[in-house]
Amino acid sequence: MSEYASVNQANHRLVMIMEKLNKYGRVDVQEIAQELDVSTATIRRDFNELERQGHLRRVHGGAVLSNVSTTFEYLYHAKVALRMDEKKRIAIQAAEEIQDGDAIFFDSGTTTYQIAMCLSDKKELTVITYDMSIATVLNNHPSIQVILTGGIVRQGYNVLVGSITENFIRNMMVDKVFLSADAIHASFGISNANYVESGIKSLLVSAGKKIILVADHSKFDKIAVSKFCNLSDIDMLITDNQISHSMAESIRESGIEIKCV
Question: Residue 47's closest CA among 38, 57, 60?
Answer without folding.
Answer: 57
